[in-house]
Every structure is written in C-alpha cells, then in structure tokens.
Amino acid sequence: MMKKKSSRILGVLGACVLAVGSLAACGSDSSVEGEVSQGSALSGSIQMVGSTSMEKYANALSEVFMENNPDVTVTVEFVGSGAGIEAVNNKTADIGNSSRNLKEEEKAAGAVENIVAIDGIAVCVDAANTVSNLTKEQLTNIYNGTITNWNELGGTDAPIVVVGREAGSGTRGAFEELLGLEDACAYANELDSTGAVMAKVAATPGAIGYVSLDVLDDSVKALDLEGVAATVENIKAGEYFLCRPFVMATNGEISAQSELVQSWFDFVLGAEGQEIATEVGLITVQ
Questions:
Q1: Is 3 exposed, middle or buried (0-12, 13-18, 19+ CB in 10 A)?
Q2: Domain range list for the chain
Q3: What's the pTM?
Q4: Which of 58, 178, 197, 260 lies 20 to 30 A from 209 at CA?
Q5: Residue 20: left (phi > 0), alpha (psi -120 to 50), or beta?
Q6: Which one, of 67, 70, 58, 112, lies nearest residue 257 by Cα?
Q7: CA–CA separation, 139 vs 124, rounded Å?
C-alpha cells in the first residue's frame, strides 16, 4: 500500500467516514429492534426483486432463513436496482433490493430505504495489466474519456477499454455519483450484471470495470485507489472512498409490513443476518 501525505489521508478519511456515517443514518429510521425467534410457526412467501450486485448476499440470507423456517419460501429476482424499487412501489414485490441510496422520487412514491449492509466497489483490470494504483482524478478521467491509453498512467501502450453497467444499475449509479460523473461516462461496453462486467474485464486486454467488492475474484486484478486497497478493513477505517449501501426497500415502514416480512428484517438486521453479511465480504450496519 502506498504511503500518502497526511493531508491526503485526512481528506480521504473524512470523506469516507462521512459517507459511511450518512449511509448508517439513512437506515436508522427503519431499523428493527430486537430479534424474533425463527421457527416453524412462520409460513408463506416473500418475493424480492432488484440489484444483481446483491445476489450473493440475498441468496445466502434466503437459504438460511428458509432452513430456519421450513414453511417459508423466499424467491429473488435479480433485474437491477431501479426495477426492484419500481416493483416495490407497484406492490408486485415485498422487497426491492437496491445497491444505491433511494432517489427522492422513489421515496415520494412510497419506497422506504432500509439499509442492511455496506458494500465497497472494486475497480478491476485484466490480470496482465501492469498498473496497480489510480488516483481519484485519474479514475475520473478514464471514465469521462480524458485518459484513453494506459501509457498515460505508467502502463503499456494499449487503449483503455471502459466497461460499466447498464443505465438503472445501482452499482453504476453509486459509482458515477461518487466520482461526480452522472451521465458523463464514455463507456465502450455497458453490461447488465456484475458477473458480466467481471467476465468482460478478465477476457479483454486493456479493459477496466467496476464490481461489487463481495463478488471480486482472482480472474481480475483489483486496483488500489489513492494507494488504498479495496478491503472491508479499509472501508471501515474510512480510507477507501468507493463504498455504497445495500438497501432492502419496502413500500411503507417495516412496521407496516406483514408479520412474515417483519420477521425477515428481524433476521437480516439481527446477529445471524449480520454475520452472513460479514461472511460474504460486506460491512455490517449493527
């Protein structure tokens, strides 16, 4: 990890602490106190729709919840954050998974933001790329099209292939907002899932993309940002600036939902659910 000047450390640390603190504050109004016992008395079904970045986490939670409650079925569709929140507001789903904060218009339509974990966004390149670190300014200039060749960053003479998510993706929304690049990115490829982005970067020399930290694997190389590695520890310390909330939105407050959905949130925000968040590489909110 590169050693940074103290002023840079303070600036980045302040920004990250503010971001994580803001995420936690946004979820405070909807938190569930206590934890109910999970048992066979619960029955019925829960339908979740939304973020592809939350697939690993949502599937892990669903599996354990159904093991604890054999008469309950949890189904999850991974179609993007915007579609998940729309489904909740249309009352065609119980929970809308979003890998970004809710927009004001989504809240005005009835969606309530329930933050269940914090995720980091990793910036990755193909394994052969010799560049290992980018500043925030360099990353911004890659995605807005100002920097177009890796030799401008100390790498080999090769064009930069800018890969990102499709419009409506929570990961894309959070990434662009954190860099001040809303609707200003010069994408060569816009893909419809986290897995597709990682596969494209892994297979394309000169490619760069962004993925949820919890799905990162050895098929790609994760870059340090401002000399800081993309790790849970660095996000908790406020040193890594690319982080965002994982939200399970409901139509109305949790207390207004069915007993089954309320029990789901007791589980997710309780000790067992938060342990699962840790196991899949996320930061807990409790």
A1: exposed
A2: 6-20+120-243, 27-118+245-279
A3: 0.73
A4: 58
A5: alpha
A6: 112
A7: 11
Three-state DSSP class for 67? Answer: helix
**DSSP H/E element including 174:** helix 170-179
Chain position carrying tokens 């697939």: 55
CA 165 to chain centre: 12
Q: Which residue has the tokens 């991974």?
A: 78
- Asked if 81 contacts 170 with a C-beta cutoff of 8 angstroms, the reply is yes
Q: Are 253 and 234 in contact (CB under 8 A)?
A: no
Say if domain 27-118+245-279 classifies as CATH 3.40.190.10.
Answer: yes
Dist. CA 49–CA 63, nearest whole Å: 16
Residue 115's alpha-carbon distances to 177, 246, 251, 258, 278, in angstroms, are: 18, 6, 14, 19, 15
Q: What are phi and psi of 152, to 5 degrees?
A: -75, -10
How would you write the pLDDT of the chain (286 residues) with one tens digit per residue?
433 333 332 333 333 333 344 443 333 333 333 334 444 489 999 999 999 999 999 999 999 999 999 999 999 999 999 999 999 999 999 999 999 999 999 999 999 999 999 999 999 999 999 999 999 999 999 999 999 999 999 999 999 999 999 998 989 999 998 999 988 999 999 999 999 999 999 999 999 999 999 889 999 999 999 999 999 899 988 899 999 999 999 999 999 999 999 999 999 999 999 999 999 989 998 7
DSSP secondary structure, 223-259, as one string: PEETTB---HHHHHTT----EEEEEEEEES-GGGS-H
